[in-house]
């Protein structure tokens, strides 16, 4: 079969790659359709060629649509909505596979324009989305992004490359794009945590957009500390960092679900900044974006009410890693789904069974 992957943003890749590898292994012809409007052409080209992936550049949705109508692949994978499904469905079948498992209502609402199938992760998510869209086709498979961890093909970061001490406990700080705790951390916070390695993996948009120069300067300051490694924008996958870290610090990222699925402790920042468009009289936009599934993951792990409480919480959770173990397992069942490393195989099985 001929199968295309719609790569609107670089951060779709960790979700796509395990599925691509499984389909490629089974002899199917796979191609990535990459948007130049959203991605750095030089870096993305180098990355895809290093992995031996065939690709086609498009500028936007209109050009992508033209490619799909001309080439007529058997299946197209999408990481989000796509505006021309009526036309696409005349020649191809489509997959919707979200690139994250956070709590935003958009996770569910992107299915208001149904694709041929949508692959879903956990039990609770499947139940809820089937209630919302009872006539559509949902298949529970798990979360393919984590397959390399569960099937033990991902070895983690190269300690020599990042210049850190593998014998130290390691913290992963992974703030999301909005709301973000990044601006609430002081310039010298790595010094206060010098007993730990600190891996910092921020959202790709924070590193790539000019409007976040203030945040980029702060991140550069943190990177100057000897116990810190800051991931570059072309280090698109969080997966090696998940493997190597002992504890995760974040505020509203779906990374919290992913890390908890590895049964390792998380500390949730209850302090964060909002964009001006979500503050004051515009707070209704924030409420609409995050809805009833609060960005505060109430019982997934320990909460730090402010930065000054963070160190104590980190120390407590590392010394007693089983504190929230039962809750982590419940969240994993509800949100992440099966953790056997075979989500990609189940996806490929479905694709092959529905030629």
UniProtKB/TrEMBL annotation:
One GO CC term on file:
membrane
Pfam families named among the record's database cross-references: Glyphos_transf
What are the alphabetically sorted keywords of the record? Transferase
Q: Which InterPro entries match?
A: Glycerophosphate_synth, TagF_C
Extract the signal peptide range: none
- Name one molecular function that GO assigns to this entry: CDP-glycerol glycerophosphotransferase activity
Q: Give the protein name, as stated in the record.
A: CDP-glycerol:poly(Glycerophosphate) glycerophosphotransferase
The organism is Ancylomarina subtilis
């Amino acid at each position: 079969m001929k199968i295309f992957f719609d790569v609107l943003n670089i951060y779709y890749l960790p979700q796509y790659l395990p599925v691509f590898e499984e389909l490629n292994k089974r002899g199917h012809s796979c191609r990535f359709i990459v948007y130049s409007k959203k991605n750095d052409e030089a870096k993305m080209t180098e990355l895809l060629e290093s992995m031996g992936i065939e690709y086609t550049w498009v500028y936007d949705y209109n050009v992508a649509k033209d490619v799909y109508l001309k080439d007529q692949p058997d299946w197209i994978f999408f990481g989000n909505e796509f505006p021309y499904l009526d036309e696409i469905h005349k020649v191809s079948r489509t997959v919707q596979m979200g690139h994250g498992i956070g709590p935003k209502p958009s996770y569910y609402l992107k299915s208001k324009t149904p694709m041929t199938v949508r692959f879903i992760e956990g039990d609770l998510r499947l139940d809820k989305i089937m209630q919302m869209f009872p006539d559509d086709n949902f298949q529970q498979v798990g979360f393919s992004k984590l397959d390399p961890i569960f099937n033990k093909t991902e070895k983690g970061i190269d300690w020599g490359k990042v210049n850190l001490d593998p014998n130290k406990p390691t913290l992963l700080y992974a703030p999301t794009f909005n709301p973000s705790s990044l601006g609430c951390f002081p310039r010298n916070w790595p010094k206060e945590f010098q007993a730990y390695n600190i891996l910092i993996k921020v959202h790709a948009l924070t590193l790539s957009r000019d409007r976040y120069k203030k945040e980029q300067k702060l991140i550069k300051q943190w990177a100057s500390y000897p116990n810190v490694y800051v991931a570059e924008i072309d280090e698109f996958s969080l997966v090696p960092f998940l493997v190597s870290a002992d504890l995760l610090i974040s505020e509203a990222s779906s990374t919290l679900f992913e890390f908890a699925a590895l049964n390792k402790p998380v500390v949730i920042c209850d302090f964060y900044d909002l964009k001006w468009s979500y503050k004051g009289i515009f707070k209704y936009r924030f409420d609409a974006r995050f809805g009833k599934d609060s960005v505060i993951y109430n019982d997934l792990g320990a909460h730090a009410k402010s930065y000054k409480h963070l160190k104590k919480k980190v120390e407590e959770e590392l010394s007693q890693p089983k504190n929230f173990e039962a809750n982590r397992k419940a969240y994993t069942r509800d949100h992440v789904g099966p953790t056997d490393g075979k989500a990609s195989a189940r996806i490929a099985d479905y694709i092959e069974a529905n030629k």
